[in-house]
Amino acid sequence: MHAPLTAFLVALFLSVPSVASCFALLEVDKEATFVSGPEGYARIRVGADRALQAPRDPRCPAVSRVRISSYRDSRFVGDAEAALPCESWTKTARGFVYRDSSGAVAGIRTVRFGPDGLQIEAAAPGHTPVTGPIGFAHVRFSVDDQQFFVRFHTFSRNGAAAVVSPRASRASAAAEAAFWDTMLGDVADSDGALTALARATSRNPYDGRAHFLTGMMRLYRFERMEPDQRRVSLAGKREILASTSAMERALPLRLGGLADDSRVPGFAGAAIYKKGVAFGESRTTERGRRMMEDAAEVDALFNGFIPFGFAPIAAPTSPDYATILHLLDDVFPTLFEECFMQPEICFNEGLAPHNLEGTFVLFGDLYTKAGRVEDAVSAYETAVGFGESSGWKPEFLERARQLVQEAPARAALYQDDDPANDPAFTDLGGAGNCAYCHNR
Ligand code: HEC
């Protein structure tokens, strides 16, 4: 394995907390207003979400923390996470309130926290305003190990002066919650999420976020159905077609913040590429390929993973596979340092609570197909190393251990003259690859 990668791994082991913290996403009646400039402020509000029903007491000696950030130009930006002094919390009739009119900590003036909702107000000076255009805003609030995320993707204004995310409808809140219940592995069945998403898009055909998540959910289902994406079943064709039609609906809806989230055209390109391959349509495949490459060009840190979608399909000697190896060998080593400032993207701090483990399994698969057995074994071992202490699903950990053993034999099958005997990527046709990063 390359020297910079080894150094990076050592630094990683030292910096990543051993057990991935769990989070709950708050969706019900969420709304936010962000105003920029020297008088800038943030007002964030969530209603009586199911996840708020047993709030932890934030008064002393508990530790509560807040971070208000946004995804701008493909990076998480904003103030660092701040610990709120516990003596500024008091009990109210139905919860707790934090007050500091001076905003001494990160400009946070008030926080109301209880079963009826969560409200956070912050203002400059002290608060660094969220400034549009952004892909989304991400708010993190925790009391000890009880952690909440609130994400805002849908905007009525998204410019330099102000970013406004109007109150989400109940239908889109339910759809978003159902999508993440499935991705996080809390709910095994994905039909419920599709139904909730369909309800959101039929109620509001301009709900770009719900169309996009429909496309992603269909892609997830496709990957679970098809061990070999070069030879797709009828059911798989139906699924990937449904994915691309949802993505095609999402792409032109520029109001939703979709236009300023560079990940969206990359994900859409991956679905379009796979649909082109499944149906043998070379122009569709080419369009998807171009979207995937453009996305990686715009942003290598997150979207650099998008062209890995070629890997289960492309031959190890093909130009598409050369793109993958170029990203792995030449591009990623230049980004390692930035990773430490972007733990939601690179580590396990965002919506992919086992991102590192899933990433190293994927790297292992990529090296295996390239015939680089030593690199593959080392990547799988790294996944095992993290997974042993992070609360990763035992069956995924077991699979990673098995891949360490099987890497040489699997590499040989890719290298022989018979592409039909190529082993499946992890875990296509099974749990799906999404689950390795996104399941709790
Ligand atoms: C190698 C690990 C990995 C794999 C595999 C993976 N993801 Fe992700 N995904 C991530 C990371 C990291 C993020 C960024 C986390 C964040 O935004 O907090 C992310 C972000 C996302 C988002 C956007 C989050 C948002 O709401 O802003 C969606 C949707 C998503 N992934 C769905 C999927 C689906 C569906 C699959 C499978 C087809 C998949 N992911 C495969 C790691 C992965």
What do these coordinates show?
By secondary structure, the protein is α+β, with helices and mostly antiparallel strands. The chain has two domains: 28-165, Immunoglobulin-like (Sandwich); 170-438, Serine Threonine Protein Phosphatase 5, Tetratricopeptide repeat (Alpha Horseshoe), CATH 1.25.40. It contains 14 helices and 14 strands. It has helices at residues 3-15, 170-183, 191-203, 208-225, 234-250, 263-279, 282-298, 319-331, 336-339, 343-346, 355-370, 373-390, 394-415, 433-438, and strands at residues 24-25, 31-35, 41-46, 64-72, 75-78, 82-84, 89-92, 95-99, 108-114, 117-123, 136-143, 146-152, 157-158, 162-165. The strands form two sheets. An eight-stranded antiparallel β-sheet has the order 7-8-9-10-3-2-14-13, with no helix packed on it. Strands 1, 4, 5, 6, 11 and 12 form a six-stranded mixed β-sheet that branches. A hairpin with a 2-residue loop joins strand 7 (89-92) and strand 8. Helix 2 (170-183) packs antiparallel against helix 3 and helix 11 (355-370) runs parallel beside helix 13. The longest helix has 22 residues, at 394-415. The protein is globular, with a radius of gyration of 22 Å. The model has no long low-confidence stretch (mean pLDDT 94).
